Amino acid sequence: MAIKPQLRTLAVIAAAGLALTACGSSNSSTAGSGGSGGSAPCGNYEIGFLGATTGPYGALGQNMVGGIKLALDTYNKANPTCKVNVKVFDSQGDPTKATPLATQIVQDTNIVALVGPGFSGESLATGKTFYAAGLPSISPSATNVTITQQGWATWHRVIGNDSAQGAADAQYIQNTAKATKAFVIDDGSDYGKGLASYVQKGLGSMVTGTDTVQTGQTDFSTTVAKVTGSGADAVFYGGYYAEAGLLVKQLRQAGYKGLFMSGDGSEDPAFVKAAGAAAADGSILSAPAGPAPADFNTKYKAVNGADSGLYSTQSYDAANIVLDAIKAGKTSHQDMNDFINAYSGTGVSGPIKFDSHGDITSSTIFAYKVANGKLDTANPSPIQ
What we know:
CATH architecture of the largest domain: 3-Layer(aba) Sandwich
CATH superfamily of the largest domain: Response regulator
Order of helices and strands: EEHEHEHEEHEHEHEHEHHEHHHEEEEE
């Protein structure tokens, strides 16, 4: 996702076994195994995180940091004399704020890899800096298709991109919702605009109108009037939960009764809070990730004091890949990057293997429904 964002996959297999030893030669593993067995090499190792932990989308970054902390908690308990820490850099999801933070990150010699960036816009703004420094990164959430087309050989993501999600969302609107006319809206961000464009492409002649709003916008009356005047029986919004919630609330107040659908940037309980239970009911929020294993939230809450959320499982898996590399003694930038490139395993978010561009090789898109005033995160339906 982008400013993302947040999300869980088809297999939903809990982390288990296949731990690497400190001198292990195989990169085939299960994400989450970094803390088990053997002893880790010691050093002042840190995992960096770049994303929003404050501001309108701070909850998304906090979910990601929480996943990292859970992975570190397991690892550090198994390696109490050789602990690894996380260093958090709060960009508020703003590419202009992320850029100088990227410089700070690459100058910190203790940081062996980055989990992040959290959002697509800041990924595009900082990728060149990380690549020039050779610092490996694994984003749990940045989904803009063009990121992995830049030639940055150190950039990876453990989540499906907007092309896959957009095609699946269009399929849902056409085949499951049986809509006849659709209105497509985006928030102008690299994430929202990109995702919406793939939905629009998939819907083709079904699209009866489009519009662009802004992040931080609260009055959507102009857009609402366009939707209600278009005759659309489905609305897709590419953007984040803060604006998505207010938009669907104002659409319902204006009498719109059709489907409201959004992507992974909105797939969070905060969407329901922003919209209100009545307005949110019936909304479909897609994500390239299935529900977490049953015990994941219990473990997450024990460490973080709060429930897991969007992108918690992805960041947990990303951190464990880095920890497995550390455990295998692959701590230089080049060795770490080689380890990540060759990695193959199954994490709590599903199967993980990267193609030559850093994209995950397989990802199932799920539809999550808001019902009875709550986002049902336990029972999504696979779209493809």
